[in-house]
Amino acid sequence: LVDINLSGANLDGIYTALELERSKSSKIIMLTSMSDEEVIQQAFTAGATDYILKKDATRIPEIIRSTYYDPSPIQALIKDYVRLKSEEQLKDLTTAERGVYDLIEQGYSRSEIQKKLIKSDNTVKNQIKNILKKLSVSSMKEAIQKVKSGGLDV
């Protein structure tokens, strides 16, 4: 159970949820007094499995039990939504750049990518440079984090 505003009005609970989601060790229920659609979307993009308003606090035990024991059909939709938000980050990449991105995400080194895709070092370097530029990041590690977070600024 994570409050969206852990320390003031800066939505840091969403980033906490994103870190918890990366560990894959828990289900996250966001608690807030905010019903703004964009905040709700950010919470689910970060990995929340449910969202409860503080005015409905009496339902917290029921929601915790339901989230723990009964995966809801909505969770399947949320999972697909998160996948789409990640894919949205890659929409401007060319097919070749996407291939390089996918291999880097899988852990391949640049030299392994060159061999696997039968490309020169300069071609792979240029494609990586283009990926970084299109995703507005400075490293492939940041690029992967940005894509996995659905574009949330981490």
Structural class: mainly alpha
How many helices?
8
Tell me how many strands there are. 3
The dominant shape is elongated
**What's the order of the H and E elements?**
EHEHEHHHHHH
How large a portion of the residues is in β-strands, by DSSP E? 5-15%
| Unreliable stretches | none
Radius of gyration of CA atoms, rounded to a whole number: 19 Å
Give the topology, please.
Layout: E1 2-3, H1 12-23, E2 28-32, H2 37-45, E3 48-53, H3 60-69, H4 73-89, H5 95-105, H6 110-117, H7 121-135, H8 140-148
Parallel strand pairs: 1-2, 2-3
Q: Care to describe what's here?
A:
The model has no long low-confidence stretch (mean pLDDT 86). The chain folds into two domains: 2-84, no CATH class; 90-148, Winged helix-like DNA-binding domain superfamily/Winged helix DNA-binding domain (Arc Repressor Mutant, subunit A, Orthogonal Bundle), CATH 1.10.10. The protein is built from eight helices and three strands, in the order βαβαβαααααα. The longest helix is centred in the middle third of the chain and has 17 residues, at 73-89. The protein has a three-stranded parallel sheet with strand order 1-2-3, sandwiched between helices. It has helices at 12-23, 37-45, 60-69, 73-89, 95-105, 110-117, 121-135, 140-148, and strands spanning 2-3, 28-32, 48-53. The chain is elongated. Helix 5 (95-105) packs across helix 7 (121-135). The protein has 154 residues and is mainly alpha-helical.
